[in-house]
């Protein structure tokens, strides 16, 4: 879950072989296909996403259940998941600084190593029945999550403008594999240590991070070269106030925030309604599969119907997920709602990310991408924490009902921005 981070910037001295190739590709033509070196990096990013992206389903499907087991306060049951999302949000800017100074590969390697350590700490916290230690482990995993989320921008930066949605979509296909790996690790390892239920799954999370290290090491993204572009572009405040950026970020925030809000509460709600932990984990697996399986064709759909229409379609599907969940408490309703939620997230988040890539110049990419992900994942952290409280206070239906007004607001914003751009284009013609 692991939408949608900080990109490397030439203006800050953060050029690598991928971004250099992207410049060449853009010069050659908007429709230029990626070069062999770019394809190699793209394949490695997909593989790294497959392993790194599996951490989020493990934490999300078990974090609330472990929180219930270890915490004496039911309102804090989703705190471990919330702290993971907060860790992602707080790590976006430090990760961007590391990428700027040391390059993407070193930042990604550091992320994977912290992913390894965080899994071990979380498992040890369960073994010791130490809720705070478990929370420290999930929080540390947030830095790894921030790096994994930035893989999509790494792919976009090395692609020609017209090919960026497909590049983003292809990297996120790795999440499809992660959607199988993560929940299966939960199912096969949750009882591996009878004295410490669920600890085995977090040892599994650590092992997956370790497996990602050699893949990241093979990325051909060297340390930053000398500055090649004068200036650092427009002030961040100026970019942030442009209508396109505000609408794109709002769409990403609402899409990812609502998805996290519902997904965090869903396993607890399922178990509370009499379904098993295994059924809850499978529900998360189907959800994460639905999040990433459409990436096989999302890029082509964006090319066919446009970025705004794709983002709007994603939001409509999120509203449909709420309707499905409100229809009953059977597995069909839970799983069906989670599947629709996943597809809606894919369309909405990739569409919004693609719009964000149109909002900055090459020398502005790092700071704009970092701001985007800080806002998105900061909201995700707040939504995941509040979902536990709202589930306990108001129930599952209330969580789904609150989705409709937010979806409606963003749809209006997208329609207004599209109408404005069409008017401007008409005047220019």
From TrEMBL:
Transmembrane residue ranges: 44-70, 82-99, 106-125, 131-155, 167-189, 195-217, 245-272, 284-303, 310-329, 335-356, 368-386, 398-417
Pfam family name, one: MFS_1
InterPro entries: MFS, MFS_dom, MFS_trans_sf
Residue ranges with Low complexity bias: 1-33
Organism, as annotated: Pigmentiphaga litoralis
Superkingdom of this protein's organism: Bacteria
Protein name per its UniProtKB record: Putative MFS family arabinose efflux permease
Location of region: Disordered: 1-35
Keywords in alphabetical order: Membrane, Transmembrane, Transmembrane helix
Domain Major facilitator superfamily (MFS) profile per the UniProt entry, residue ranges: 236-429
Keyword Endoplasmic reticulum: no
One Gene Ontology term of the molecular function aspect: transmembrane transporter activity
């Amino acid at each position: 879950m692991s939408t949608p981070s900080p990109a490397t910037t030439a203006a800050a001295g953060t050029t690598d072989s991928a971004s250099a190739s992207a410049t060449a590709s853009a010069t050659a033509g908007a429709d230029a296909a990626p070069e062999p070196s770019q394809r190699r990096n793209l394949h490695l990013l997909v593989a790294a996403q497959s392993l790194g992206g599996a951490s989020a389903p493990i934490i999300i499907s078990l974090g609330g259940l472990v929180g219930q087991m270890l915490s004496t306060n039911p309102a804090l049951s989703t705190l471990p998941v919330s702290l993971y999302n907060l860790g992602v949000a707080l790590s976006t800017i430090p990760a961007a600084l590391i990428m700027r100074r040391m390059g993407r590969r070193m930042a990604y390697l550091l992320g994977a190593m912290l992913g390894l350590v965080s899994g071990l700490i979380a498992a040890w916290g369960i073994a010791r029945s130490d809720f705070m230690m478990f929370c420290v482990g999930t929080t540390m995993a947030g830095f790894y999550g921030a790096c994994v989320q930035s893989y999509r921008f790494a792919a976009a930066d090395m692609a020609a403008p017209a090919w960026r949605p497909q590049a983003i979509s292809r990297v996120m296909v790795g999440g499809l594999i992660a959607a199988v790996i993560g929940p299966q690790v939960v199912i096969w390892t949750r009882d591996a240590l009878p004295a410490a239920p669920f600890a085995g799954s977090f040892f599994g999370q650590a092992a997956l991070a370790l497996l990602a290290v050699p893949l990241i090491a093979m990325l051909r993204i060297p340390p930053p070269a000398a500055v090649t572009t004068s200036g650092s572009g427009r002030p961040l405040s100026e970019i942030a106030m442009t209508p396109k950026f505000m609408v794109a970020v709002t769409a990403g925030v609402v899409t990812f925030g609502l998805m996290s809000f519902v997904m965090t509460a869903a396993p607890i709600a399922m178990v509370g309604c009499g379904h098993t932990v295994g059924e809850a984990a499978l529900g998360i697996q189907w959800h994460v599969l639905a999040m990433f399986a459409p990436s096989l064709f999302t890029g082509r759909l964006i090319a066919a119907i446009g970025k705004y229409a794709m983002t709007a379609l994603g939001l409509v599907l999120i509203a449909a997920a709420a309707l499905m969940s409100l229809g009953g408490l059977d597995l069909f309703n839970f799983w069906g709602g989670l599947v629709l939620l996943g597809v809606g997230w894919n369309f909405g988040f990739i569409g919004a990310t693609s719009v964000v890539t149109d909002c900055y110049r090459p020398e502005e990419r790092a700071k704009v991408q970092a701001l985007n992900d800080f806002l998105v994942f900061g909201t995700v952290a707040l939504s995941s924490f509040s979902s536990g409280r709202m589930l306990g206070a108001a129930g599952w239906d209330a969580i789904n009902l609150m989705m409709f007004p937010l979806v409606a607001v963003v749809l209006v914003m997208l329609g207004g921005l599209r109408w404005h751009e069409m008017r401007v284009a008409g005047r220019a013609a």
